[in-house]
Amino acid sequence: MIGEKIKRLLIESEKTLVKPAEQVAVVGVKNRLDHALLLLTTDKYAVVPVLDDQSRMRGLISMPTIMQTIMDIQDVHFEKLGEIEVGEVMDRDYPYVLEEFELEDVLHMLVDYAFITVVDSDGYFKGIITRSEILKGTNRIAHEFEKKYIIKDKETIAQ
């Protein structure tokens, strides 16, 4: 369990922890791979969420997934970029939390993922929680904790 004082320093507020959906680059399941590739390369993203027509979370698409799809052992088939829909090749196994999440769960997940998607109980995409936001909070703890709190070793107190 994360202590309240640490939690307050780690995240300014749970609202600022989640980057809202309207500020997140996404692609649709029916977009072609050329569109996804353009978004990934232009904005320098490693991976982006894939949504359906109703803005429900469906998966993730990444540069390696796209490249694996258009390559074979002898050649890269760039013409396939305009033929294949994102929904056909996206990764359907992705990390997510519901809007009412536990910070501890998010921290465990961010060890393995750069971001966690946030969805409501019906699967509608609400935003992302990024590893960088947690690292900003860690930086805040490193610089502010001893300015706000008196720290004593338990060994010293016990004597």
Provide a descriptive summary of the structure in words:
The strands form 2 sheets. This protein has a 4-stranded mixed beta sheet with strand order 1-7-6-5. The chain contains 8 helices and 7 strands; from the N terminus they run H-H-E-E-H-E-E-H-H-E-H-E-E-H-H. It has helices at residues 4-10, 14-17, 33-42, 63-70, 86-89, 103-110, 131-148, 154-158, and strands spanning 18-20, 27-28, 47-51, 57-62, 96-98, 115-119, 125-130. It has one domain: CBS-domain (Roll). The model has no long low-confidence stretch (mean pLDDT 90). It is an alpha/beta fold and 159 residues long. The protein is 40% helix and 19% strand. It is elongated.
Question: In a few lines, what is going on in this structure?
Answer:
With about 160 residues, the protein is α/β, with parallel strands linked by helices. It has helices at about 5-10, 15, 35-40, 65-70, 85-90, 105-110, 130-150, 155-159, and strands at about 20, 25-30, 45-50, 55-60, 95-100, 115-120, 125-130. Strands 1-7-6-5 form a four-stranded mixed sheet.
